[in-house]
Specification:
heterodimer, A: 543 residues, alpha+beta, D-Maltodextrin-Binding Protein, domain 2, Dipeptide-binding Protein, domain 3, 7-stranded mixed β-sheet, 4-stranded antiparallel β-sheet, 21% strand, B: 278 residues, mainly alpha, MetI-like fold, 13 helices, 76% helix, 0% strand
C-alpha cells in the first residue's frame, strides 16, 4: 500500500515533468514560427488612408464625455465648445464667441449653426444644455457643483449661470464633448454619436476600436478615413512596431533606445509629472474612515525643503527615464499658470545639509539624522506594478542617503494606498490642462478628499490667492493669482515656500511613429489616459 | 572494469551526494546573508550591463548586481520554503496521527485529503494566499495549507500498517491509551517518512512560491524574491536583456534540483526499503 502510494506519486511526478517538457517544446515552436512569420511581412509603403495605432488608453467607462471621456484631450467622437491651440490659447470650436457678465456669474455662448452630428441631426443649444445637465448629475469626476443652471436662449445661444464666479469654468467647456440629446441613453458610452472628426465603427473591448471619418464634420477634414486603435500591452505594442504592423505605438522609456526599422521615435513633452506627496501635519488625527493622518518627520519643513534642494532631478531623468523627460519643479511646469520663479537650484547637498543642521537634525553615529530622538526616516509608498514609479522611488531613496535621511520604499495596491497616503509619503503623478488641479491639490478646502490634498496642506495666504484665482473674471487675472499662490515673494506652495511636495520629473510621452507619417507639432501632453496625441489629427499626413 | 573503478559503495556515494547537496545549499544561504546592502544599491552608471567578470549575472535597469539580487532572492525563497514545508509537514503528521483514532476521524481525514487534491494546487494557493492578505504571511499560510495532502496520505498509509502490527495490538490489550500508542509506537516509525517528505516538500513549496509571486499574488514587489525578479525581467526581454531572466531562473532550478537530490538520497539512506524501490 505504502509503496504503491509512493509509486503513484512518482509516476505522477514523472508525467508532470514530461508534460512540462512538452509544453516548453510547444512554446519554442510557436515562438520560432512567430519569429519567421514576423520577418516575412514587410511594411507596405503604399499610401493608404488608414492608420493603425497602438497607443493604449482604452477608457473603462466608455466614450461618454459626461462621465469623463476626453477630459485628458481629444474626445475624437465629440467636439467641444472651445479648444486649445498648441500654445494653450483658448480658441473657438463649436462656439463662435462668448461673453462673461461683469459679476462673473453668467457665461453667454454663441454656437455655430451649421454643425450636424454624424447621424445628420443638427447640433443645437438644447444638446449643449443637455450635455452639461447630464454631466452635473452623473456623479463622475467632472465637478459641476458650481453650475446653477444652463439655459438655451435660442437655437444657437446658450447661457450658463454659476453660483459663484469661477474662472476655471471655461476649462470645463474645453474638455467636455457635446453629446446629442436625441440619441443619448444608457448605452451611449458604447455607441457614441457626436460631431467630432471621427465616428465609432466597432469596439471590441480589451482589443480594439475602429473609427472612420465623420462625413458631417464641420472642421478641417483629416487625411485618414479609418483609424484602428489596438489595445496592446507595452511589450506587445513594441513588438508590433518592430514587426511593422502598426503606424504609431506608445512605448515606455525602456524601449525607446531601441532601433526600429521604418519607425521614428517622437518625444512629446508633457506635464505628466511624478512627485512625492509629503504628509504636511504631525501625527495624531484620523480621517472619518479611520485612516491615520500626518507624519512627524515630513511635517517638518526643513526635511521637505532639504529634500527638494538636495535631490538630483537630472539624475532621475537620465537614470530612470533614460533621458526621456525633464526635471519637474511644480505640478504644472510650462503651463500658462506656472510661476517660472519657482524653479530652484537642486542637487545641492551642502545647502540641504545646512538646512537640516540649522533646524536641529543632527547626524548620529549610524549616519541617520535625528532631532529630539526622532530619526529622519520614512517609508515612501508607490503603486505596485508601476515600474517607473518604483524605479523613481528606489533611486530617490538612494539619493537621500548622503543627506542622512533614511527612506524605505514599499509597493502597495491603490486600495492600500488610499488608507496609508495621509500618513506616508507617496509617489504620485498629476498634470492637467486645467488649473483647477492646482486648487484641488493645494486648497485647504480639499484636504483629504480622495487623492486631492492628501498632504492635509493648509496655508491661509495660499488659500486666499487660490480663491481670488477662481473668482477672477479673466484668464490673465486668474493666472496672476495662480502664480502668486505658488510664490509671492514670501510664501506659497512651491518648493520655495512650504514645499508640501517634491516634484521630481515630467515624463516625455514616447511614440514610435511610421517614418513616413508626419504628425506635426503637438502641445504639451497631459497626465496619461485617453488619446491626447490625436488632438491635431487633421494635420497628420503622409510625407 | 567499471566495478573496480568505483571507489565508494552505494551507501558512501549516497552520503557523499547528501553532503555535496547540503554544502551547496548552505553556500547559497550563507552568501545570501553575507551580501551587504552595498551590492544591492542603485548604480545608474552600470545599468543594463551584460554579464561580465565584475557582474557575473549582469546588472538590471537600475544598475543593481543581479548575482547579489539572485542570491538574496534564493535565501528568501529558502526561508519561505522552510517555514511552509515545516508547517505542512506538521499538519500532515497531526492529521495522520488523528486518523489513527477511529474509523470516523480516519474517513474524515481521507475526505479532506481528497478534497484538497481535487482542486488544482495553484488555484487553491492563490485563493488562500489572497484571503490571508498576500505578502509573506499569505504565501506561507497558502503553501502550508496546500502542500500537506500527499504527505498525509503517505503517513496515514504507513500508520495503518503499523497499527495492524501485533505489538500495537498487544499494547492496546495491555490497556495503553490511544494517545500513548500514537506517541510511543506510531510516531517513531513515522519520523523517517516525515523527514524525507519534509525535504521533498521544499522544492514544491519554493517553486510554487515563485510561481504565485510571478503571477503577482505572492510576495510584494518590495521583497527581492526570485518570482519578483522574474516577473520584472519579462518587461525587458524584448529589448534583449536575456540575463535578467536567465540566471535567476537557472539558479532557482538549480536550488530546486539540489533539494530534490538531497531528499532522494536521504530517502535511500534512512528509509532503504522504500528508497531502493524508487
Amino acid at each position: 500500500m505504502n509503496e504503491l502510494a509512493y509509486a503513484s506519486i512518482e509516476r505522477e511526478y514523472n508525467m508532470k515533468q514530461r508534460e512540462k517538457f512538452l509544453w516548453i517544446i510547444l512554446g519554442l515552436l510557436v515562438f520560432i514560427l512567430g519569429a519567421c512569420s514576423g520577418t516575412t511581412e514587410n511594411e507596405s509603403d503604399q499610401e493608404t488612408d488608414e492608420l493603425i495605432l497602438a497607443i493604449g488608453g482604452e477608457p473603462d467607462n466608455g466614450f461618454d464625455p459626461t462621465t469623463g471621456w476626453g477630459r485628458y484631450g481629444s474626445p475624437l467622437f465629440q467636439s467641444t465648445l472651445f479648444t486649445y491651440d498648441k500654445d494653450f490659447n483658448i480658441v473657438n470650436d463649436l462656439a463662435t464667441s462668448y461673453s462673461l457678465s461683469d459679476d462673473g456669474l453668467t457665461w453667454t455662448i454663441d454656437l455655430r449653426d451649421d454643425v450636424r452630428f454624424s447621424d445628420e441631426e443638427p447640433l443645437t443649444a438644447e444638446d449643449v444644455k443637455f450635455t452639461f445637465e447630464t454631466a452635473k448629475t452623473s456623479g463622475s469626476i467632472i465637478d459641476l457643483n458650481n453650475l446653477e443652471e444652463v439655459k438655451s436662449i435660442d437655437n444657437d445661444t446658450v447661457e450658463f449661470t454659476l453660483k459663484e464666479p469661477e474662472s476655471t469654468f471655461i476649462y470645463l467647456l474645453v474638455s467636455t464633448g457635446i453629446v446629442p440629446k436625441h440619441v443619448y441613453d444608457d448605452t451611449y458610452n458604447e455607441n457614441p454619436v457626436g460631431s467630432g472628426p471621427y465616428q465609432l465603427v466597432q469596439w471590441d473591448k480589451g482589443q480594439q476600436v475602429i473609427v472612420e471619418e465623420n462625413p458631417n464634420y464641420y472642421g478641417e477634414k483629416p487625411n485618414f478615413s479609418k483609424l484602428t486603435f489596438l489595445f496592446l500591452s507595452e511589450d506587445a505594442a513594441f513588438a508590433a512596431a518592430k514587426a511593422g504592423e502598426v503606424d504609431v505605438a506608445s512605448v515606455p522609456p525602456a524601449f525607446a533606445n531601441e532601433e526600429v526599422e521604418g519607425m521614428e521615435l517622437i518625444e512629446l513633452e508633457s506635464v505628466d509629472n511624478r512627485g512625492i506627496m509629503f504628509p504636511y501635519v504631525a501625527e495624531g488625527e484620523e480621517t472619518a474612515d479611520g485612516a491615520p493622518i500626518g507624519n512627524d518627520v515630513t511635517a517638518d519643513k526643513a526635511i521637505r525643503k532639504a529634500i527638494n534642494i538636495g535631490v538630483d532631478r537630472q539624475t532621475l531623468v537620465d537614470g530612470v527615464l533614460e533621458g526621456f523627460g525633464t526635471p519637474a519643479y511644480s505640478v504644472a511646469d510650462n503651463m500658462p499658470w506656472w510661476n517660472e520663479d519657482t524653479v530652484i537650484e537642486d542637487n545641492d547637498p551642502e545647502k540641504a545639509k545646512q538646512i537640516l543642521e540649522e533646524s536641529g537634525w543632527l547626524e548620529n553615529e549610524s549616519g541617520v539624522r535625528e532631532k529630539d530622538g526622532l530619526p529622519a526616516e520614512f517609508t515612501l509608498l508607490y503603486p505596485a506594478g508601476d515600474q517607473i514609479r518604483q524605479s523613481l522611488s528606489i533611486t530617490f531613496a538612494e539619493l537621500m542617503k548622503p543627506l542622512g535621511i533614511q527612506v524605505k520604499t514599499e509597493g502597495k495596491s491603490w486600495n492600500e494606498l488610499e488608507n496609508l497616503m495621509y500618513s506616508n509619503p507617496v509617489m504620485m503623478g498629476w498634470g492637467s490642462h486645467d488649473p483647477l488641479e492646482i486648487y484641488n491639490l493645494y486648497s485647504s478646502e480639499t484636504r483629504g478628499i480622495g487623492y486631492y490634498n492628501a498632504n492635509y496642506y493648509a496655508n491661509p495666504v495660499v488659500d486666499d490667492y487660490l480663491k481670488q484665482a477662481i473668482r477672477a473674471t479673466s484668464e490673465e487675472e486668474a493666472n496672476k493669482y495662480w502664480k502668486k499662490a505658488q510664490w509671492d515673494g514670501e510664501t506659497g506652495f512651491s518648493s520655495l515656500g512650504d514645499a508640501p511636495w517634491a516634484w521630481l520629473v515630467n515624463l516625455n510621452h514616447l511614440y514610435f511613429v511610421n517614418a513616413n507619417l508626419e504628425i506635426g507639432e503637438q502641445k504639451i501632453q497631459p497626465h496619461g489616459h485617453g488619446w491626447p496625441i490625436t488632438d491635431f489629427i487633421e494635420q497628420w499626413h503622409w510625407q | 572494469m567499471g566495478e573496480r573503478k568505483r571507489m565508494l559503495n552505494l551507501r558512501q556515494r549516497t552520503i557523499a551526494m547528501i553532503i555535496v547537496a547540503i554544502l551547496f545549499l548552505f553556500g547559497m544561504v550563507i552568501s545570501g546573508f553575507l551580501i551587504n546592502a552595498d551590492k544591492l544599491t542603485v548604480n545608474l552608471d552600470m545599468k543594463n550591463s551584460a554579464p561580465s567578470v565584475s557582474h557575473l549575472f549582469g546588472t538590471d535597469w537600475l544598475g543593481r548586481d543581479m548575482l547579489a539580487r539572485t542570491l538574496k532572492g534564493l535565501t528568501l525563497s529558502m526561508g519561505v520554503g522552510l517555514l511552509a514545508a515545516f508547517l505542512s509537514a506538521g499538519i500532515a503528521l497531526l492529521l495522520s496521527l488523528l486518523a489513527s483514532w477511529n474509523k470516523r476521524i480516519d474517513s474524515m481525514v481521507t475526505w479532506l485529503i481528497d478534497l484538497f487534491l481535487s482542486v488544482p494546487h495553484i488555484v487553491l494557493l492563490i485563493l488562500i494566499s489572497f484571503a490571508f492578505g498576500g505578502g509573506f504571511k499569505g504565501v506561507v499560510i497558502g503553501l502550508a495549507f496546500t502542500h500537506w495532502p500527499s504527505l498525509t496520505r503517505l503517513l496515514r498509509a504507513e500508520m495503518l500498517q503499523i497499527k495492524s502490527a501485533e505489538y500495537v495490538g498487544v499494547s492496546h490489550r495491555l490497556g495503553k491509551s490511544r494517545r500513548w500508542i500514537a506517541l510511543h509506537h506510531l510516531l517513531p516509525h513515522l519520523i523517517p517518512q516525515l523527514f524525507v517528505g519534509f525535504i521533498l516538500l521544499f522544492p514544491h513549496a519554493i517553486l510554487h512560491e515563485s510561481a504565485i509571486t510571478f503571477l503577482g499574488f505572492g510576495l510584494s514587489t518590495e521583497q527581492p524574491a526570485i518570482g519578483v525578479i522574474l516577473s520584472e525581467s519579462m518587461r525587458y526581454l524584448s529589448t534583449g536583456m536575456w540575463w535578467l531572466a536567465f540566471f535567476p531562473g537557472l539558479s532557482l532550478l538549480l536550488m530546486v534540483a539540489l533539494f530534490d537530490l538531497l531528499g532522494r538520497n536521504l530517502k535511500k539512506l534512512i528509509d532503504p526499503f522504500h528508497g531502493q524501490k524508487a
